[in-house]
Write a structure and sequence with these properties.
alpha+beta, 9 helices
Length: 351
């Protein structure tokens, strides 16, 4: 399945697209554990008393969160909305959720039994001629996230292909689709353990799996720590999956920094008694960033819904000589885009 949407150059580190499919309920909190209150969640994340009061009064408030790596950006946004938990579930289960991420151009849901037909939509068209030329004429690992093995595969299969010859885009598309298919199979079988590293310069790699774990295992407060069984499922996938949790896998085509960008994402969702919980991660990113994780918690009470969204991503573009400036720009953009995201979500839930 593919859905067409709008496009922009807003980095996906600030707008994690969510596509939710839910099946049944399991106890994410653990036996007899009470749900956290909105104030507990907000104060634990580091919202000030004034910010908590602003959220309670109806404002959408975003903050930076402490990071655990130099290449990480992390933020949270919270709001109240006069809507029901069922309304929120209906929205997050529908394709209307696409409207809150203008970077998404197309996506497809991947079945566990995905075959070559499921990857036919992956590729580069006439509008991507510049990208195809870069891949063929520049060292691929300098512009794409590839493992050493993937780089070798691309080099070998495209060694006789030039950017100006007929069929160049098709040749590049086919090898790239095969790389994504291999990434998907490895992740489906082994989870974080199946995530190959990305080449970073000669004889150097970075591990997206380690970056994901660093966030999930951070000693600082995490909303997932309030849902220990769900957090364990997130960390241990495909092991330790309690009955009722729904795992959804999809590919996403977006526009990131003006370039076509493919990501592979994994969605984990549960609807419980008085709460809706959604976790999503990009376990493969085509370029620009290494990882992206997002957690939504929605709590129902007599005032409607309270929602908090925690977003964490890693990118090597905020490290190095000018990393401080790039980091501040990234932090400011993330907070702005998190507020824009929740503003659109509130609109969708109340219209």
């Amino acid at each position: 399945m593919a859905v067409k949407g709008g496009g922009s150059e807003v980095m996906r580190l600030a707008n994690c697209f969510i596509f939710v499919m839910m099946l049944t309920v399991f106890t994410a909190r653990g036996a007899d554990s009470p749900l956290p209150t909105p104030n507990e969640l907000l104060s634990g994340l580091g919202f000030s008393g004034e910010q908590i009061r602003a959220v309670s009064a109806g404002e959408i408030v975003a903050i930076d969160l402490p990071t655990v790596r130099d290449n990480q950006l992390k933020g949270a946004v919270a709001m109240r909305v006069p809507a029901s938990i069922d309304r929120a579930a209906e929205f997050f289960m529908s394709e209307r959720r696409l409207s809150v991420d203008t970077t998404v151009g197309a996506f497809g849901v991947l079945r566990p039994s995905a075959n070559s037909n499921d990857w036919q939509a992956i590729g580069f068209g006439p509008e991507d001629r510049k990208e195809v030329r870069k891949i063929l004429e520049i060292r691929p690992v300098s512009i794409l996230n590839l493992s050493p093995g993937e780089a070798g595969l691309m080099r070998n299969r495209l060694s006789q292909v030039t950017a100006d010859q007929p069929g160049a885009s098709n040749a590049v598309s086919k090898v790239y689709a095969d790389i994504l298919a291999g990434r998907y199979r490895a992740y489906l079988e082994r989870g974080l353990e199946g995530m190959a590293p990305y080449v970073r310069g000669r004889n150097r790699t970075t591990s997206p799996a380690e970056e994901i774990r660093a966030h999930l295992n951070a000693s600082s407060f995490s909303v997932l720590q309030q849902f220990p069984e769900f957090r364990r499922a997130v960390l241990d996938f495909p092991e330790n999956q309690p009955p009722g949790i729904e795992n959804t896998f999809y590919w996403i085509r977006a526009t990131v920094e003006g370039r076509p960008h493919y990501a592979l994402a994994h969605q984990m969702t549960t609807l419980g008694d008085g709460y809706l919980l959604v976790y999503s991660r990009d376990y493969f990113a085509g370029h620009t960033y290494n990882t992206l994780q997002s957690t939504f918690v929605w709590l129902a009470d007599d005032r409607g819904l309270f929602g908090v969204h925690v977003n964490a991503g890693t990118t090597d573009e905020i490290t190095g000589l000018f990393g401080g400036v790039a980091r501040q720009v990234g932090k400011d953009r993330m907070k702005s885009d998190l507020i824009d995201n929740f503003t659109e979500v509130r609109k969708q839930l109340t219209q």
